[in-house]
Amino acid sequence: MTTALRSTTLKIDQVIKERVKRLADARHRTPHRVMLDAISEYVEREEKREAFRQDGIRAWEEYQATGLHVTHDEADAWLAKLEQGQDVEPPACHV
């Protein structure tokens, strides 16, 4: 599958432009490639961050709706057993 490429304009200040150029030269790449890589990495990182945030919101909403939870002590004891190499099931949720 081929993705159509489109040009876009990005205005950056001269200092950033020079930094990108130096980095591109050091990596034997074009400034264009460095900027594309940077944008791709940023978008991927922010998508993951947003997915993590949405998971947290869903978990909070589920807790508010059901009241199901484990206490800190229960979770800590379970994690301690895992750390010791024991293959144990997580604690059961309760209200």
* Number of beta-strand segments: 0
Summarize the amount of helix as a percent range.
Answer: 55-70%
Mean pLDDT: 96
H-E string: HHH
Fraction of residues in β-strands: under 5%
| Alpha carbon gap, first and last residue | 50 Å
Shape: elongated
Number of helices: 3
Could you list the spans in which at least 5 consecutive residues all have pLDDT below 50? Answer: none
Largest sheet: none
Instruction: Write down the Rg.
Output: 23 Å
Could you say which structural class the secondary elements and strand pairing correspond to? mainly alpha
Task: Annotate the secondary structure layout.
Layout (H helix, E strand, L loop, with lengths): L13 H14 L3 H36 L5 H12 L12
Helix pairs in contact: 1-2
Tell me what you see in this structure:
With about 100 residues, this protein is an all-alpha fold. The chain has a domain of about 55 residues. Helices cover about 65% and strands about 0% of the residues. It contains three helices and no strands. α1 crosses α2. The chain is elongated. It starts with 13 loop residues before the first helix and ends in a 12-residue tail after the last helix. The model has no long low-confidence stretch (mean pLDDT about 95).
